Amino acid sequence: MAKSGEGTLGWLRHRNRERVVEVMRERGRISQAEIARVTGLSRTTVHTLVSGLKDSGLVHEVEARVPDVRGGRPPVLLALRDSSLAVVGIDFGLSQVQVAVADLVHNLLAERRCDLDVDHHAKEALEAATRMVAEVLTEAGLERKSVIGAGIGIPAPVDSTRNTTGSSTILPGWTGLRIASDMRDRLGMPVEIENDANLGALAEMTWGAARECSNFAYIKAATGIGAGLVIDGRLLRGASGTAGEIGHTTLDESGALCYCGNRGCLETVASGPAIIQLVGLVDGEVPSLARIVELAIAGDLRCHRAISDAGREIGVAVAGLCNLMNPERVIVGGLLSRAGEVLLQPMRESIRRHTVQAAAEMLDVRPAMFVERAELLGAVALALHGSSERMTRAAGG
Ligand SMILES: [Zn+2]
User: Fold this and answer.
1) How many Å separate Cα 196 from the centre of its chain?
2) pTM exceeding the 0.85 threshold for the entire prediction
3) How far is the CA of 259 from the centre of ligand 1 (A)?
4) How far apart (Å, rounded) are the C-alpha atoms in residues 322 and 78?
5) What is the SS3 assignment for 78?
6) Are 234 and 220 in contact (CB under 8 A)?
7) Ligand 1 mean position, distance from CA 318 (Å)
8) 113: β partners
9) CB distance 221 to 334 below 8 Å
């Protein structure tokens, strides 16, 4: 929709200024050079805009946390000055609820977690999250009105049009629950909701292994297998929010029946439960996935083989993904990624074998920086990114 003044120099300067503020909110502490790279604006334009923002007191210079290793002066970084504002991140895992509050300069101010069977106790989970948000705000000395938004993660696809879970088989206890609007009413603040793999991608993009990447795939390999796809710096959500459901890629049409109703999905051979079943008893007991990962690293032949075979199978599905989206990096997270090269090496081989050469040549497959806290940090990042989008919209962008 055309607005008055659209396309004029003044309008353009306003748009660029909003874009610079948005990037600073997303990145926390950032140099002018990095702002230029992320926004695509020239260094001169960025310099002019930043000078204006400094003069108006919105932006100030901060010290880099890591000093220059060559012993030189640490680079000058910029941050938004208004640290009285904050965002909240909430992660509903399968067996726990986690909550964190962070300021707009990306300092985590307080965190809480509680163990809970989230699927079977959906209402209790929402109540626990609401209570913990109040607790972290008190601990951080913040009032509710200082919070500009909350990001929420759930371990299932999100149907953004109905703001509920988009699958009745992955988190059955939550079917029909209008999570976003329910939490918005409980918390009294804007909320955004996203699935766990997309949150992992957001956390890696904001603070982790994808910080300087615009096109990458984040693979969460744990109890389930999912992907968060970032194209040109934006999460790909798809028409109904199921983009990245790589765990249900068919590998064998006559393979084992999957809980999704299809046969031979990747998850029937490489998910946490599939690996546990394959390994069988260890010392007379059914081992946890975490235990199998430990044993694989320690050189247990059966556990090592089970995880490396899973890596090979995941690689076949990821290869298909690479042929379609041609990412520069594949970042592997989730509990299975704790196995390191036991998982990654067969995965790389499999990707190389099944990907067109041009896509495989430049591809960098590496482990994620965050595993246990990926979703919680991603929920915080979602709130930071979401608030930027809302601010830009409100500013008439
Ligand atoms: Zn399936």
Assistant:
1) 7
2) no
3) 6
4) 35
5) strand
6) no
7) 16
8) 98
9) yes
Token pair listed for 198: 């997309």
Distance 63 CA to ligand 1 centre (A): 49
CA 161 – ligand 1 centroid, Å: 23
289: which residues sit within 8 A by CB, 6+ positions away? Answer: 222, 223, 272, 275, 276, 335, 336
Largest Cα span, the chain: 74
Classify the C-alpha dihedral 138-139-144-150 as positive or negative. Answer: negative
- What is the distance between the alpha carbons of residues 203 and 198, in angstroms, rounded to a whole number? 9
Residue 244 gets the label, from left (phi > 0), alpha (psi -120 to 50) or beta, of left
Nearest Cα to Cα of residue 151 among 385, 326, 322, 320: 385
Taking the centre of ligand 1 as the mean of its atom positions, its distance from the CA of residue 257, in whole angstroms, is 8
Query: Contact at 8 Å (CB) between 194 and 179?
Result: no
* Distance from the alpha carbon of residue 244 to the mean position of ligand 1, in angstroms: 13
70 CA to centre of ligand 1 in angstroms: 51
CA of 216 to the centre of ligand 1 (A): 24
Count Cβ atoms within 10 A of the Cβ of residue 68 and give its class: 0-12 exposed, 13-18 middle, 19 or more buried: exposed
- The DSSP bridge partners found for residue 180 are none
How does 361-387 read in b/e, with b if 16+ C-beta sit within 10 Å? eebebebbbbbebbbbbbbbbbbbbbb
CA 328 – ligand 1 centroid, Å? 27
The pLDDT profile of the chain, 397 residues, written as one tens digit per residue, is 445 566 777 778 888 888 888 888 888 888 999 899 888 999 999 999 999 888 877 888 887 665 444 556 667 888 888 667 899 999 998 889 999 999 887 889 999 999 998 777 888 999 999 999 999 999 999 999 899 899 999 988 887 666 666 666 667 778 778 888 899 999 999 999 999 999 999 999 999 999 889 999 999 999 999 999 999 988 998 887 788 999 999 999 999 999 889 999 999 999 999 999 999 999 999 999 999 999 999 999 999 999 999 999 999 999 999 999 999 999 999 999 999 999 999 999 999 999 998 888 889 999 999 999 999 999 999 998 876 555 444 444 3
